[in-house]
Automatic annotation (TrEMBL):
Domain of life: Eukaryota
One Pfam match: Pkinase
GO molecular function, one term: protein kinase activity
Full protein name: Protein kinase domain-containing protein
Annotated Gene3D superfamilies: Transferase(Phosphotransferase) domain 1
Record-annotated Protein kinase domain positions: 19-246
SUPFAM superfamilies in alphabetical order: Protein kinase-like (PK-like)
InterPro entries assigned: CK1_Ser-Thr_kinase, Kinase-like_dom_sf, Prot_kinase_dom, Protein_kinase_ATP_BS
UniProt KW Nucleotide-binding keyword: yes
Positions contributing to ATP binding: K47
Taxonomic source organism: Steinernema glaseri
Keywords per UniProt: ATP-binding, Nucleotide-binding
Length: 246
């Protein structure tokens, strides 16, 4: 996200007379996340995005609403969604959900060797697969699976939540049929964890979420990936091919 697209709210800013900004928590793929409180002082997370014809936030709302209908446990509860005006007068979309705790990536970085013990890493990997399976059962592919997008609960740290659906895509078309793969698909995801199909601009599918999971699993088990210092897509693709295929 570029600085021009950031929705900046100051502390104590009021949103639709329902939510008060406490502080900024961070930026996701497409939006800015704030800690907010309601009129009774209870804390939540509010994600904002400047309005465009194709807002990623709409997909996030759809995913959370569908998950809530099916009472799935690895998704944050959605409390509110709507529009408001930014301080500079632009139209902004927002959604309010439960606060999540630290991400697996943040917890990994707290450790001196930046990795979990082997038993811990294997246990986390199994939980991560369970979370991905729940998302796929809803009919969505995440397309940005990484440890930064799996968070623990604020109270129960054994509870895991998948977050940031800005790049997610339904695997079904508007008629309920499986989407036909495009001949060329634009790059989606984070270069470090992107599957090979993404690097060569092929259509990705649910198995590619699992390939991204594999790279995340390697990182928090070993402490790093072989291509951690590379940012160029071609270089990362070349090294990924070397290690994974050969």
């Amino acid at each position: 996200m570029t600085a021009a697209n950031l929705v900046k709210f100051d502390e104590l800013h009021r949103i639709n007379d329902k939510w008060t900004v406490v502080r900024m928590l961070g930026c996701g793929s497409f939006g800015v996340v704030y800690k907010v409180c309601d009129n009774e002082g209870f804390l939540y997370a509010l994600k904002t995005e400047k309005y465009t014809p194709k807002n990623a936030l709409k997909v996030e709302v759809q995913v959370l609403q569908t998950a809530e209908k099916q009472k799935l446990k690895h998704f944050l509860k959605l409390f509110d969604t709507g529009t408001c005006k930014s301080p500079d007068g632009e139209q902004v979309l927002y959604m309010v959900m439960d606060l999540a705790g630290s991400s697996l990536d943040a917890l990994r970085r707290l450790r001196k060797d930046r990795r979990f013990t082997l038993p811990c890493a294997l246990t986390l990997g199994i939980h991560f697969i369970d979370v991905i399976e729940e998302l796929h059962s809803l009919g969505y592919q995440h397309r940005d699976i990484k440890a930064a997008n799996l968070a623990v609960g604020t109270v129960d740290r054994t509870q895991f939540y998948i977050i940031d659906f800005g790049l997610s895509r339904s695997i079904f078309d508007e008629f309920g049929a499986m989407r036909r793969p495009r001949k060329v698909a634009p790059f989606r995801g984070t270069v470090r964890y992107a599957p090979l199909a993404c690097h060569i601009l092929r259509e990705t599918c649910r198995k590619d979420d699992l390939e991204s999971w594999l790279y995340s699993q390697i990182e928090y088990t070993r402490g790093s990936l072989p291509w951690r210092d590379l940012n160029n897509i071609i270089d990362v693709c070349s090294l990924t091919t070397k290690y994974i295929i050969h």
